[in-house]
Amino acid sequence: MVKMLFSENLQGKIGHDAILSRQEAELRLLELMRRCLISKVKCDKEYAVALSAVATQGLKIDKSDELCGSAISNSWKVMMEELDNSGKLIKQNAESVEAKVLDALNTLYAEKKRIRKLYQEDYTKIQQQLTNERQALGKRGGHALVNHRRQL
């Protein structure tokens, strides 16, 4: 079990609220990051498909003997092939982000939620123990006061 130790500044209600607030803010940030990365991956994949379509369209040139050996035709062909390669690289990068970064982000999000839950459970348990001790002390203190008055 993880034992949490905090400075005295974080041991009261204000500190507890500050910790919960920070945890919630981090979870919201991680969720925002996840949504943005999902959107980026989607856009990159769509862009890669569009580049591939443009390259395919651009390569549909007249293959007649009239353009054989043409520097312009050769340059155009190389440009379209490079455009297609760029699309493939963008798609590979998007898939890598999707497989690795989003997976790591989802794992981090789940871990942060687990830690927040554990912290809240521990805090509630400690608060209940404190309440029980105060009640027990109050009962003992009340009996001690009555006994003290009787002795006087």
UniProtKB/TrEMBL annotation:
The keyword Coiled coil applies. It comes from the Eukaryota. InterPro entries: AH/BAR_dom_sf (IPR027267), F_BAR_dom (IPR031160), FCH_dom (IPR001060). Keywords: Coiled coil. Residues 4-152 form the F-BAR domain. SMART domains: FCH (SM00055). This is F-BAR domain-containing protein. The lineage of its organism: Eukaryota, Metazoa, Ecdysozoa, Arthropoda, Hexapoda.
